[in-house]
Amino acid sequence: MIKDKNSVLVIAAHPDDEVLGCGGTIAKLSKKGVKVNILFISNGVDSRNQKKLQTKIKILERKKAAKISSRILGAKKLSFANLSDNQLDKYPLLKIIKIVEKYIRKLKPKTIYTHYENDLNIDHQIVNKAVITATRPQKKSSVKNIFFYEIPSSTEWKIDTKSKIFNPNWFEDISLYKNKKFKALKAYKMEIRQWPHPRSLKGIDALCSWRGATVGVEAAEAFMLGRKIKK
What we know:
231 residues; alpha/beta; Rossmann fold; seven-stranded mixed sheet; globular
């Protein structure tokens, strides 16, 4: 099967991270004809104190929200690894690496977007480590570009003493796609908080505006460039 040489894989710890971190970019790339696929590592739900049946219902609701959101953004394919939420540290790292490697072999993305390493959430940290290992630069690897995104109420909440704060050096102008990002976010209404929480709609809007203002556009998403191979 011929693979799209410009395909993108977004790897997220939880359903909603993909929109928070790079929803506008997904919409922008999709509009330009780039095939964007999304892989969710955990179910994003089962760490919460609730009964077994409630957990199953919430997992189904979260998956449904992810599918609605992906249609709004124009993503092509969703994949769910269904590992436990906020407990990725209970799995051998190798297990998660192998999951990531499996989808890289299957989808052959040229570009990957995933979590930044220095993040408060343990699942975000582990997904970053797994992706970095799975995308080590070997001769036959399809992956040429890696970008790390920020997650409001997680990346900026990491107290850092070693100068590893998220300091973006790559920006995507999403001025024309911000509305799609917010429409997609509303599919995850169970995850949206009230202002002044950073994960409120007002907080996310402020971040998009601030990232845009730092590079002279109306709205932007910010990334750390991990690697870029250009021929």
